[in-house]
Amino acid sequence: MSFVLLIGYAAIFFLLYKTFLIVWSLTYPFWIGRRRDLKELAGANWAVITGATDGIGRAMAFELAGQGFDLILISLRKERLGETASEINENYPGIRIITIQYDFTVADPKLYETEIFAKLDGHEIGILDCGNCRSRKRHYLWDNLIYSAAKQYSNWLSEILRKEYGAYGITVQTLTPSWVQTKLSHNFTSKKQKETASVPTPEKYVQSAIKTIGLVPQTTGYFHHQIENQFLLGLTPSFIRDKKLEKFATAARKRAMRKDE
Prior knowledge:
Layout (H helix, E strand, L loop, with lengths): L2 H30 L5 H5 L3 E5 L4 H12 L3 E6 L2 H14 L5 E5 L7 H12 L4 E4 L11 H26 L8 E2 L7 H4 L15 H8 L8 E2 L3 H11 L4 H23 L1
């Protein structure tokens, strides 16, 4: 077998392998995989949710309450925490709820210990994390750089945790959604986004994403977002993608600065 022919076979095998991965990521978590029993998977009854009063965090709190989990809700605004807890109790009587008011922009390990960890002590829990980049419009570009870098760090940290703790029955999943109808996404657009097939409400997104837990280590959590991720981002040449992202970021920064005036 000639070297050129060997290279050709290797290229074909590589293309088939990449195609298989794309098809698998689009079908298995959303259509083929059997939904896991989260209570059985978690082996615990408490779920800790940060950012629990808005968007995806709030929708996740309602979804987990519907599956019988007791909740520890963490958010910045005390009154919204009370309102969210009351709404959950009205819809799902009997669910135990603990609320913790905390500002995660205050990165003080001592405060984490006294204000959060001390209140979590004694509860067997799982943690859902979320982020916030709405508060500093003047430095939009700088904050967006930090936000993007932090998201990538989160992906790698999750990958390491999966490898180190997977043998102990701990499931670590990374969700990387595209546009969802949240306050965060509204800050990137000129007008409030309408619900479409590719821009779901937080409730619809969570209903889809929660079905993928325990099936795949990383996913967008939503079928249309997975299509965007695989084809629009994965197959688009980088110079075209970078140009569009630069145009989008510049327009978003101008809108953010106008709001701050």
